[in-house]
Design goal:
The chain has nine helices and nine strands. With 270 residues, the protein is α/β, with parallel strands linked by helices. β4, α3 and β5 form a beta-alpha-beta unit. It starts with 5 loop residues before the first strand and ends with a helix.
């Protein structure tokens, strides 16, 4: 029997199943890896209030206990972070990465829930920038997050995405993917990958209707799965782009507010 590769997500719960820990574990399974998890936040969405998001962080000591359980078997082959919820939880994640000499670290710097447009916790965003980016093999901000991390504000072009990637790389991340997705104008879904030397622009046709709830979490989890399976960073990012495109294309309308990606789309449509 081949060696089982281990993956970890430190992230929040999305009861609708498209994003968060649910998305990560489903994606890890699609990549043939064994997924561990440490729950950081519970997010609910209120259908009686325009799908408003309520975010409830888990106590940081409990997050630390979960990670102690996970790392009792040694470092995993790759890991990711998602919604962390508080500065204390960011510090717990930092300590776990450092104390276990964890390699292949994907940081998805979640600052907002989809449909929201304000940073959930500005102090946590600063902590992610200062404590986790220097530990990141790959960081995967969307346009909003890249604008915050880089200090450039709203990004509206590929050149601005490249400049943001340069600045974020300067904060310590080894590789940066700025996700334009459907948010950038035009008929192409564009992401920019920067390895510290060269830029690669990843493009696909935009998919309509865009059932893309959970696309960001799924993209980062797919990179994590790729790294665990021995792909180079560039290979893992390119495959993750294809994986997420297939997941969006296979998604469905959950209710009047949201349509999640379907994580089995890549496998089922090959």
């Amino acid at each position: 029997m081949p060696k089982i590769m281990k993956t970890l997500t430190i992230a929040g719960s999305d009861s609708s199943g498209g994003a968060g820990i649910q998305a990560d574990l489903k994606t890890f399974e699609e990549y043939g890896t064994y997924g561990f998890s440490a729950l950081t936040t519970i997010v609910t969405m209120d259908p009686d209030n325009g799908w408003h998001h309520n975010v409830y962080p888990v106590d940081s000591a409990l997050v630390a206990e979960q990670l102690k359980t996970v790392f009792a078997g040694g470092p995993v082959d790759a890991m990711k972070t998602g919604m962390l919820g508080s500065v204390d939880i960011v510090r717990v994640a930092e300590q776990a990465i450092k104390s276990n000499q964890q390699k292949n670290v994907v940081i998805d710097p979640v600052m907002v829930c989809k449909g929201e447009d304000e940073v959930l916790n500005p102090e946590s965003a600063d902590a992610i920038r200062d404590l986790l980016l220097p530990l990141a093999t790959v960081v995967t901000p969307n346009l909003f997050e890249a604008g915050v991390l880089s200090g450039l504000g709203k990004l509206t072009s590929i050149e601005e995405m490249k400049e943001a990637a340069r600045k974020i790389h300067g904060l310590g991340a080894q590789n940066v993917v700025v996700k334009g997705g459907k948010a950038l104008g035009g008929d192409r879904a564009i992401d920019v990958f920067f390895d510290g030397k060269d830029f690669t622009v990843l493009e696909t046709d935009k998919i309509e209707p865009a059932y893309n709830h959970g696309a960001g979490c799924t993209f980062a989890a797919a990179i994590t799965g790729g790294l665990a399976n021995g792909l180079s960073v560039a290979e893992a990012v390119a495959k993750a782009k294809d994986f997420v495109s297939a997941a969006i294309r296979s998604g469905y309308q959950f209710n009047e507010y949201v349509g999640p990606v379907f994580h089995g789309g890549y496998r089922l449509n090959r």
